[in-house]
Amino acid sequence: MNELNSVVDNAKAAFEQARTPADLENAKALFLGKSGRITEMMKGMAALAVDEKKSRGAAINLAKQAIEAALNGRRQALADAELQLQLQAEALDVSLPGRQCGQGSLHPVSLTLERIEAIFGSMGFDVAQGPEIESDWFNFTALNTPEDHPARSMHDTFYVEGGTASAPNLLRTHSSPMQIRYAVQHVKRHRAAAGAGQAPGLFSGDMPEIRVIAPGRTYRVDSDATHSPMFHQCEGLWVGENVSFKDLKFVFTDFCRTFFESDDLVLRFRPSFFPFTEPSAEIDIQFQNGPLAGRWLEVAGSGQVHPNVIRNMGLEPEKYIGFAFGMGPDRLAMLRYGVNDLRLFFDGDIRFLSQFQS
Ligand code: PHE
């Protein structure tokens, strides 16, 4: 019996030493396999007398059961250990802080355009957008800009393929073509409503006033600290039966004071020239406080819409009159945020751009 006990102890020790399921199977073979210790002992019983066989067989069976129990126990322990290792390897620390995804922000010029749209929107202005590749007609001719006007020279204008020699395509040099595009659509709609649909000639019936701003990208061959080949403009147009320069002054003053949150801001309308307005004025602003106090800063061109332009809108200039302005949102953004180099806006440096939240 001692011999059987030591076989069982040996088996237990061998199983304990097994570090992997394969080790364990090898150890099992030593005891329970075809020529394992227990099997050999069973075979050895053949030579015994019948009653000896009985007691010996029972004893071997007990030993065999003990070995099998030890084997199963070790199997389970190895499986548990392996599962434990796997769980550890795949462990997620749910208490770790998440990986931050960077918080985006709007570009300062976009913020400025949003602000401009909100202010003019509150004054009843529609917001319109138009193409950046324009025809010569909308960019110049319809705006009463004669063919020999210096603005048409190659120095200022980016010409693009696709037009003809007499009607080239170009990148719009200002947002003013939107005056014509928007007004023509407006007149077409209300002309039809007034029953004057296809009637030839200029429209002199009744229609709601045209009140629109048109912000967007514009292009000129120009580049330095205050000029970039791509820049923004925002056009404004108000045409009705009784819209005067006084309204322009009121609207633009109100806009500037709201935009810069400065009630004592002063505006100056300085006589100027644009082919599409008569009279024309450059608009300067002057802050009374802050780092720019006292300096005159140019922010827009403006004027009363020229009768030829009113005609190109399809309107009768004896009945319709209005004003237009074109301002530079980039300039407004520089003034509002105290930025002194326009190129910073378009360099795409995140460190610069992420500073603007509102
Ligand atoms: N389009 C002019 C410019 O780019 C500005 C302007 C717009 C002037 C409307 C008068 C009226 O300089």
**N- to C-terminal separation?**
91 Å
CATH topology of the largest domain, by name, is BirA Bifunctional Protein, domain 2
Q: What ligand molecules are bound, each kind once?
A: phenylalanine
In CATH, the architecture of the largest domain is 2-Layer Sandwich
Give the name of the CATH superfamily of the largest domain: Bira Bifunctional Protein, Domain 2
Please state the CA-atom Rg, rounded to the nearest Å. 45 Å
Largest β sheet strand count, sense and barrel closure: 7 strands, mixed
Strand content: 15-25%
Secondary structure class reads: alpha+beta
- Supply the number of structural domains: 2
By DSSP, the count of extended strands is 10
Mean pLDDT: 92
**Proportion in helices:** 40-55%
Q: Provide the succession of SSEs.
A: HHHHHEEHEEHEEHEEEHEHHH
Report the uncertain regions: none
CATH class of the largest domain: Alpha Beta
- General form: rod-shaped
Number of helix segments?
12
Strand order of the largest sheet: 1-5-6-10-9-8-7
Supply database-style keywords.
binds phenylalanine; 12 helices; 19% strand; BirA Bifunctional Protein, domain 2; three-stranded antiparallel beta sheet; rod-shaped; 2 domains; seven-stranded mixed beta sheet; 358 residues
What do these coordinates show?
The chain is α+β, with helices and mostly antiparallel strands and 358 residues long. The chain contains 12 helices and 10 strands. The strands form 2 sheets. A 7-stranded mixed β-sheet has the order 1-5-6-10-9-8-7. A 3-stranded antiparallel β-sheet has the order 2-4-3. Helix 1 (2-17) packs antiparallel against helix 2, helix 1 runs parallel beside helix 4 and helix 5 (108-122) packs across helix 10. The longest helix is centred in the first third of the chain and has 40 residues, at 50-89. The radius of gyration is 45 Å and the shape is rod-shaped. Bound molecules: phenylalanine.
